[in-house]
Amino acid sequence: MRLSTSWMYQQSLGSLLNQQSTLATTQNQVSTGKRINVASDDPAGAGQIISLSHILASNAQYSSNIDSANSRLSTEQTVLSSAGNLLDSARSMAIQGINGSLSASDRAGMATQLTQMRDQLVQLANSTDSNGDALFAGTSTTTAPFAKNAAGVVSYAGNNATLMASLGAGLQIPTSDAGSAVFMDVASGNGTFTASAGSSNTGTLVVGANSVSNAAAWNSASAASGGGYTISFGANGSWTAADAHGNPVLDGSGVPVGGTYQDGGTVSFNGMSITMSGTPAAGDTVGVKAGGNQDIFTTLGNMITALQGSGNATVLANSLNRQIESLDQAKGVVTSTEVAIGGRLNTLGQQKTTYQDLNVTYQGALSGVQNVDVYTAISNLSSQSVALQASQQVFAKVGSMSLFNYIK
């Protein structure tokens, strides 16, 4: 084997450079606390780090979405709670307004209060979240969804869509409720039908609470009725019923339904029950209309109009009773929306906890792959520093020698 001075120099230099590189790597590990700083340190481990980092970044974004959704839904829930309290106050006022002993000025004062309540409800319906986005505009969040004209009629300018928040792969949750569903598309009457005293009645008949007492009978008969009925009163409270086509309503035996009504009694047929009070005059009627919607603002407007009107106590009681029914339907929608929001907030809380637990797991896995054992690294750094110093001394000595001095 041929030895040369150049060979000895290259060997010493190569050893020295390798030790310097190893020491630099160890120094980097100690200073950063990481075992892998570049992909070449451990290609397989670097791949794991990238994968875990992507998962953690996704979880962080989902957690941020959860926080935003939680804030928006909590705000909506607070607004709906205020709206519900407002409806309760309006209902109490409507019941008070039925009192026949109230003076015209008393009713006018109540109408003024209800006007203020309606304006307050419009303001609540136009509420925004912490980012200034409308809560009840659907996806048209930059537009105030509700506007009231000079006549007090409220219109909806939003859409029927729902904002969604992504909480995970394939998991979304609504973060809004369209104002059309909450405030506008509210079922009228008892939710199935509305029973109203005829506008030309001359007696003291007041239509009170009404309901579907037999859903199967109502459903089977309502299709053939043309969507409604007219109950007509004769002398001494006798009554008969006709459908929307003018045909007499028949019972199961083919006999026309009817009977004699007494003050405080109930008229029932085809699965519905209508409670009344007062005394009907001959020729008085009660109309039954199936289905239909009435927005909450119209309900309040009708209450205001009734209290401002000059009708007698019977007319006022009938008008306010119908609006109380609609208020109850509106309150039911508000309450059910609040309950739905509560369920969504519960889901958000559970998902946030899941991500917190997963982050602990993924951070532990990332630390196991990426981080260095600091004590071992410091120990290696010390021994590598000593070895490098020794190599540097040897290199300096070798560099000053010729081949003849080396083999001497």
Describe the structure.
The chain has 3 domains: about 5-55 and about 370-405; about 70-185 and about 325-355, f41 fragment of flagellin, N-terminal domain (Up-down Bundle); about 195-290, no CATH class. The strands form 4 sheets. It has a 5-stranded antiparallel beta sheet. It is about 55% helix and about 15% strand. It is of the alpha+beta class.
Please describe the topology of this protein.
Elements: H1 5-32, H2 43-97, H3 104-125, E1 146-148, E2 154-156, E3 164-168, E4 171-174, H4 179-184, E5 193-197, E6 206-212, H5 215-222, E7 228-233, E8 238-243, E9 258-260, E10 266-269, E11 272-277, E12 285-290, H6 296-308, H7 313-370, H8 374-399, H9 403-407
Antiparallel strand pairs: 1-2, 3-4, 5-12, 6-11, 7-8, 7-12, 8-9, 10-11
Helix pairs in contact: 1-8, 2-3, 2-7, 3-6, 6-7
**Proportion of residues in β-strands:** 5-15%
Helix percentage range: 40-55%
Number of domains: 3
Named at the architecture level, the CATH assignment of the largest domain is: Up-down Bundle
Average pLDDT number: 84
Number of helices: 9
Structural class: alpha+beta
CATH superfamily of the largest domain: f41 fragment of flagellin, N-terminal domain
Could you say which overall geometry the principal axes of the C-alpha atoms support?
Answer: elongated
Major sheet details: 5 strands, antiparallel
Notable traits:
alpha+beta; 9 helices; 5-stranded antiparallel sheet; 3 domains; 14% strand; f41 fragment of flagellin, N-terminal domain; 408 residues
